[in-house]
Amino acid sequence: MSTPLISVQDLNVEIKTNRGLLKAIRGVSFDINGGDSIGIVGESGSGKSITLKAILGLLPNNAHVSSGKIFVAGTDISTLDKKARRALLSETAGMIFQDAIAALNPVITVGDQIAEVPRFRLGQSKSESRQTALKLMEQVGISDAESRFGLYPHQLSGGLRQRIAIAIALSGSPKILFCDEPTTALDVTIQAQVLRLLLELRKNSGLGIVFVTHDLAVVNEICDSIKVMYAGRFVEAGNVHTTFSTPTHPYTYSLLKAAPDPDEAVHRLFSISGEAPNLTAPVVGCPFAPRCFAADDHCLTAEPALLSIATSASACFKSSGHDTWAASDSKSGVK
Ligand SMILES: Nc1ncnc2c1ncn2[C@@H]1O[C@H](COP(=O)(O)OP(=O)(O)OP(=O)(O)O)[C@@H](O)[C@H]1O
Ligand SMILES: [Mg+2]
């Protein structure tokens, strides 16, 4: 088997908070290959953004990787100095965050912002980097790139600014694009345009996509595989269609039940009654057990590992009974 572009192995991240040490990520493992499209879903606070930030070396100052390894193109990044790590990461991965639009520099023209990495990191001349930027603007569907190159962010619409952010993320020619809720702040029509663009990039250039979202319909639309995150761990992983048709973790089952019809134009955020555990305290038992319709006493005493079942993986002692859940979920508490 070829080396994955990125391999995350048993990642643990701790964050110092004023409530104590938070075990935000607890044993996350996964591989990312070129052309993959992986959706990561889970409630607010489950650890989706911190997982991406740990991979990209962008953890906040109060957070650190307490154990586990991240390999980029086969190299353990903890063995590299900061400069080498940044160089390796930037040629492998680009990123767009939720506040990508706000992160644009208001006093530099959008063209120069896209040309920055080609010029100063890839060593292109001024005119070469301008050509690269114009090409990227066209690639992300910005018409009339020549005349828009010299505009400032505030002179463009929200949709165009989001495309600029994507062009910047692609400007180092990454093999994988990490997207952390990049469409949440956009209106539905622009969201659809951005998703279409990402699908095209994947099809035409084999770009791998890791897409964090609250929106299961978006995962359904653009991802092949899904990781469901709960309390700092992946609790279910598998092919999107299989997972959506036969979820093997009660949390996934409840999320899907709480989700609106994927075809509905307006997607609301899912909500399941109860709260996720406080991860500053030790985890005893399955962290989802207090909210779970299938839990029994055993679930309150031991935390299940993420184990393979057929082509999926599930961290649930009860996953073998998943075909009977529809009949037994009356206490699932889905609102
Ligand atoms: N800078 C920080 N300081 C303290 N705690 C933090 C910090 N950033 C994240 N956390 C905590 O780490 C946990 C994981 O946060 P993370 O941002 O990864 O959640 P998320 O799954 O991305 O949620 P959302 O869907 O709301 O974006 C949460 O409990 C959060 O409160
Ligand atoms: Mg987040």
Descriptive overview:
One of its GO terms (biological process) is peptide transport. Residues 6-256 form the ABC transporter domain. It is found in: Cell membrane. Its main location: membrane. By secondary structure, the chain is of the alpha/beta class. It has a domain at 249-335. The protein is built from 11 helices and 12 strands. It is globular, with a radius of gyration of 21 Å. Bound molecules: adenosine-5'-triphosphate and magnesium ion. Adenosine-5'-triphosphate is lined by residues 15, 17, 22, 24, 42, 44-50, 60, 62. Magnesium ion binds next to helix 1.
Mind sketching the topology for me?
Blueprint: E1 6-17, E2 20-32, E3 37-41, H1 48-56, E4 63-72, E5 75-76, H2 82-92, E6 93-96, H3 110-121, H4 126-139, H5 145-148, H6 158-170, E7 176-180, H7 188-205, E8 208-212, H8 216-222, E9 225-230, E10 233-239, H9 240-245, H10 250-258, E11 307-309, E12 312-314, H11 325-328
Parallel strand pairs: 3-8, 3-9, 6-7, 7-8
Antiparallel strand pairs: 1-2, 1-4, 4-5, 9-10, 10-12, 11-12
Helix pairs in contact: 3-4, 3-6, 4-6, 6-7
Bound molecules: adenosine-5'-triphosphate (ATP) and magnesium ion.
Offer a few descriptive terms.
335 residues; disordered C terminus; 32% helix; 11 helices; cell inner membrane; alpha/beta; binds adenosine-5'-triphosphate; binds magnesium ion; translocase; ABC_Ni/Peptide_Import; membrane
